[in-house]
Write a structure and sequence with these properties.
Number of helices: 3
Helix content: under 10%
Number of domains: 2
Shape: elongated
Structural class: mainly beta
Radius of gyration: 26 Å
Distance between the termini: 53 Å
Number of strands: 34
Largest sheet: 14 strands, antiparallel
Length: 409
């Protein structure tokens, strides 16, 4: 051991370098997943990486070596890393203030653990799984010290462990826990040599500059970011929305419901990467069902420029629409009317809305897109007006300006 390592050992530091190469969602079989930042997938957001840091308290590792009990405790847990497209990413986790309580009189270890991670789904729950990057072991645990009962013994830490927590929830911070019970739930085993081992603790992760404070999650059950397919044509391809209807409902002001009999678009274009760009989407023929006596200007609600992104969730194609300006407003909701209890009220509506393209898997000249409570939940979508919420339900049809059969692949 060189002098730098001896100095590190005296501080009792355990450094784990973790590289996340694949994020998988497993039902009956493994499926690749995608990280969502804000209200868009990283591909839809044009992000190659999203920096993430973490901090936590004590991490404890227990097991047996040559029949002797082993317990290592590290008083501080921190991490630095990033999320990447397709669920890839990297992280470095540092465990500081480490000491052995069993066996006694052993020097603090110096370990560098390198791992690949993936998201797995087991029994409806999502876990982040860690496996050795080199395919054999995370690192070798060496016992040293003249009075250490295992002096001179070295054993590999291998197998796998998982983190559990709100991975599929769109939150700004995620506290993820790890323990032998969580490993058991996920069906994975961590080992010290040939004996089982356990690692327990927790770490809270947040996105950092330039994404400070933004919500993020693993899209549940996503089998990947789909792409558009145009038979006989190529991308980009101009598109338009024709036909359809929508109901926009909001919890603001005691409840507002707007029924619209038409949906159209301006400047729509599908491009590579499963992305759709629209200058505006307009809901027309709108009447206010609640509160009574109210109306919206000209019977229309028009959005700001939108970006749509495709994803495959549990074998179905979904498209999620968000403002092209990250975190910007979707549209303004205004009510008027002589007998309208909310006449003169105006709200800025933010958030997103998502629909399922049930026919997207088969190319056709016109593709329907259905919006429902289920499609909003699957895509993590919804309207927000301050602390109030809302949603879009209904349907619309999309076609290409130059008539080619199209869909997703």
């Amino acid at each position: 051991m060189d002098s730098r390592h001896r100095q590190t050992a005296s501080r009792g530091l355990w450094l784990l370098a973790v590289t996340a190469l694949a994020v998988l969602g497993i039902g009956a079989s493994a499926q690749a997943s995608e990280w969502e930042v804000g209200s868009q997938s990283m591909v839809g957001r044009d992000l190659s990486t999203a920096p993430v840091n973490g901090s936590g308290g004590t991490t404890t590792i227990t097991g047996k070596v040559l029949g002797s009990a082993v317990q290592l405790s590290c008083s501080s847990t921190t991490s630095k890393g990033s999320l990447g497209t397709g669920g890839t990413g990297s992280a470095t986790i540092e465990l500081a203030g480490c000491s052995f309580s069993k066996p006694s009189n052993c020097d603090p270890p110096v370990l560098l653990l390198e791992a690949n991670t993936s998201l797995i789904q087991v029994g409806g729950s999502t876990y982040q799984k860690f496996v050795p990057k080199n395919g054999t072991s995370f690192a070798t645990l060496e016992f040293k010290g003249q009075e250490c009962g295992l002096n001179g013994v070295a054993v590999p830490l291998k197998g796998a462990f998982v983190l559990a927590g709100p991975l599929s929830e769109s939150t700004a911070s995620k506290t993820l826990s790890y323990s032998s019970a969580i490993n058991s739930e996920a069906g994975v085993t961590l080992n010290l040599g040939s004996n089982s081992a356990a690692m327990s603790g927790s770490i809270t992760n947040v996105l950092t500059y330039p994404l400070n404070g933004e919500a993020w999650r693993a899209l549940p059950g996503v089998s990947g970011v789909a792409n558009w397919k145009v038979e006989g044509g190529s991308l980009p391809a101009a598109a338009y929305i024709s036909g359809g209807s929508g109901t926009l409902s909001f919890s603001v002001g005691g409840g507002v419901t707007v029924n619209c009999s038409g949906v159209s678009s301006e400047g729509a274009e599908i491009v590579s990467g499963g992305i759709e760009k629209l200058k505006s989407m307009t809901f027309s023929g709108c009447t206010v069902a609640k509160p009574s006596g109210c109306s919206v200007p000209n019977g229309k609600i028009s959005t700001n420029p939108l970006s749509g992104s495709l994803s495959m969730i549990e074998g179905e194609a979904y498209e999620k629409f968000v403002p092209q300006t990250a975190g910007g407003p979707l549209f303004e909701l205004q009510l008027s009317g002589g007998s309208c209890s909310l006449s003169g009220s105006s709200w800025t509506v933010s958030g997103s809305f998502g629909g399922i393209g049930k026919g997207y898997g088969v190319t056709a000249y016109s593709q329907p897109l259905e919006f429902s409570a289920t499609s909003n939940a699957k895509t993590g979508s919804g309207f927000t007006i301050g602390s109030s919420t809302g949603k879009l339900t209904g349907s619309m049809s999309q076609s290409l300006s130059i008539p080619y059969p199209w869909g997703v692949q």
